[in-house]
Write a structure and sequence with these properties.
Blueprint (H helix, E strand, L loop, with lengths): L2 E4 L6 H8 L6 E5 L10 H5 L1 E5 L5 H15 L2 E7 L5 H9 L1 E11 L9 H10 L4 E8 L1 E4 L2 E4 L2 H13 L4 E4 L10
Parallel strand pairs: 1-2, 1-4, 2-3, 4-5, 5-6, 6-9
Antiparallel strand pairs: 7-8
Helix pairs in contact: 1-6
């Protein structure tokens, strides 16, 4: 059950570690500094293949994704954190997914706005019957009159909730009221 991780070497490293689990499948990590990334667990690190790439360099990203797909794909699951709206790059990711595979895409809070990118992505992805799509919208926490962004642990908890559930969209924290954002 190969796992594809894109942009997950920072705040999503814990979620990537949990998704990788104790199984023996390959883990392909694509990120700007993927070659410096380690899970810190011998068994997971032994299964890790790193591809240094930046999604802002579309040709380089597609090349790295093609290499990872040829070596480890098709991917049974993918965890993706990419900025921007580049549908062509996202279509390349979907192309490397196995039939029935799970694609979890993490988006920032702005994607939650009515008519924003998040809604658009759900429409596009629901039109692809060969994969299961889960979207995680990152919000904030508001408590006792003070707002803050989510911690890495809270973000990873939201990702794992999405991975285990059937909801297409999972909100980590809260995204409304918008005016309370930190």
């Amino acid at each position: 059950m190969p796992l594809l991780c894109i942009g997950t070497t920072g705040m999503l490293a814990g979620a990537a570690r949990q998704l990788a689990g104790s199984g023996g499948a390959d883990i392909a990590v694509l990120a700007r500094r993927a070659s410096a990334f380690r899970f810190g667990e011998t068994a997971l690190d032994a299964r890790l293949s790193a591809y240094d790439t930046d999604w802002n360099d579309a040709a380089g990203f597609v090349s790295a994704l093609e290499q990872a797909g040829a070596a480890h794909g098709p991917f049974r699951s993918a965890l993706v954190w990419m900025h921007g709206r580049d549908e062509a790059l996202r279509a390349q990711i979907v192309h490397h997914m196995a039939e029935g595979g799970l694609l979890i895409e993490v988006l920032g809070s702005a994607a939650s706005r009515p008519g924003a990118f998040g809604e658009e992505r759900v429409r596009v992805m629901q039109g692809l019957p060969h994969i299961r799509y889960r979207q995680v919208l990152l919000g904030f926490v508001h408590h006792d009159g003070v707002s803050r962004w989510l911690t890495h642990e809270e973000i990873c908890t939201g990702v794992m909730r999405a991975a285990a559930g059937d909801d297409v969209v999972t909100v980590a924290g809260q995204v409304e009221p918008w005016k309370l954002r930190p």
